[in-house]
Write a structure and sequence with these properties.
CATH architecture of the largest domain: 3-Layer(aba) Sandwich
Shape: globular
CATH class of the largest domain: Alpha Beta
CATH superfamily of the largest domain: Glycogen Phosphorylase B
Radius of gyration: 21 Å
Strand order of the largest sheet: 3-2-1-4-5-6-7
Structural class: alpha/beta
Oligomer: single chain
């Protein structure tokens, strides 16, 4: 039986790691790059930066920087078609744009489309952002040799947006989160001043995350929960629903990856009724930490959670409140065990191998 052809050297965009709010896309880029470099030669490409990337977002690959800062580079990529990716990563035979920041190239182009939320409700994004995303979508439609998406929900959204379904490959994310040991949980919760039981929400505080419903549901369930609500993650664009005084609510902001694993593990339940996600990485991370999950029915989050979470109408605070009480109370042990079983189906190694198969396919055409 003939040996399989070697995987092609890759140019991979890693610019997301320097964004003010790297978010789930930053986690994706970091973890995927780290897993891919065990399979094939990878060169990261980014804009010019004076500042270092966050220490816990290490892609484990050499990074070649364009001689332009981010905004100028993105304009040059979208409007002038320069500099091409292969000018930065000269050995590359395939280019993978891991976000909507797509470098021009004459090589086979793979693009990850995390979601198309800007088409569903443009008001959840800045006008500048929507215009940028629309130009990038046009690039995908015209030039992508393959499109990688994290869920069947996003694959369907791509088809509705005019992306050829034959080009779309569903590759679910993985996670590196594991249950933290009790000593780590005790140290992290003490350092953050969490002396009482808590339910947890994780994400960027922006409109589409539906944080307003989380707060309203918690207010209705607070007495029965007898727990605080802890919000983890940076402020994003738009109104911050967590601003002001909300009894029982603690806003921690951004935390390190190691602290995040401990905060997941220590939670009584995890609440994530987002309106629109491409995948819902916090849902998988919470499950991997062995935490009961309440999340949105009819979304990619439900696709990730399977039968292991309580699925609710994300626009119904009463439904979210009732599910939180169940998840943190009588159904906690059953749901926690189901979370661990479900999370074991996902890994970054599996994601990297499936993505590398896409590279091999487009390189051989």
């Amino acid at each position: 039986m003939p040996e399989p052809a070697p995987l092609p050297p890759l140019a991979l965009t890693v610019e997301q790691l320097w964004q003010r709010v790297p978010g789930g896309s930053g986690t994706y880029v970091t973890a995927l790059a780290g897993a891919l470099c065990d399979l094939l030669p990878v060169t990261g490409i980014s804009a010019w930066h004076r500042e270092a990337r966050p220490a816990d977002l290490d892609p484990r690959v050499a990074v070649r920087r364009a001689p332009l800062p981010r905004r100028a580079l993105y304009e040059a990529w979208q409007r002038a078609g320069l500099p091409r990716a292969e000018h930065l990563a000269r050995d590359a035979r395939v280019v993978h744009a891991t976000t909507w920041a797509i470098p021009p190239t004459r090589l086979p182009l793979v693009v990850t489309v995390h979601d198309l939320a800007f088409l569903d409700d443009p008001s959840h994004f800045t006008p500048h952002g929507v215009a940028f995303f629309r130009r990038a979508l046009a690039t995908v439609q015209a030039h992508a040799a393959a499109v990688v998406v994290p869920s069947h929900d996003t694959a369907a959204a791509c088809a509705r947006a005019g992306v050829d379904p034959a080009l779309v490959h569903v590759v679910p994310h993985g996670t590196d989160v594991q249950p933290a040991d009790p000593a780590a949980v005790a140290e992290v919760t003490a350092r953050h001043g969490l002396a009482r039981p808590y339910v947890l929400w994780v994400g960027t505080r922006e409109p589409r995350k539906n944080l307003d419903v989380v707060l309203r549901a918690y207010a209705r369930a607070r007495a029965e929960l007898d727990a605080e609500l802890v919000l983890v993650g940076p402020r994003g664009w738009g109104d911050d629903a967590a601003a002001g005084h909300h009894p029982g609510v603690r806003v921690l902001g951004a935390v390190s990856r190691s602290d995040l694993a401990a905060l997941y593990t220590g939670a009584r339940a995890f609440c994530f009724p987002s309106l629109r996600e491409g995948f819902g990485l916090p849902v998988l991370e919470a499950m991997a930490a062995g935490v009961p999950v309440v999340t949105s029915a009819g979304t990619s989050c439900a696709e990730v959670a399977g039968d292991a979470a309580l699925l609710v109408d994300p626009r119904d605070p009463d439904a979210v409140a009732d599910a939180l009480v169940q998840a943190a109370g009588p159904r906690r042990e059953t749901l926690a065990a189901a979370s661990l079983v479900r999370a074991a189906d996902f890994s970054w190694t599996t994601a990297a191998r499936a993505t590398a198969e896409v590279y091999a396919a487009v390189a051989s055409r």
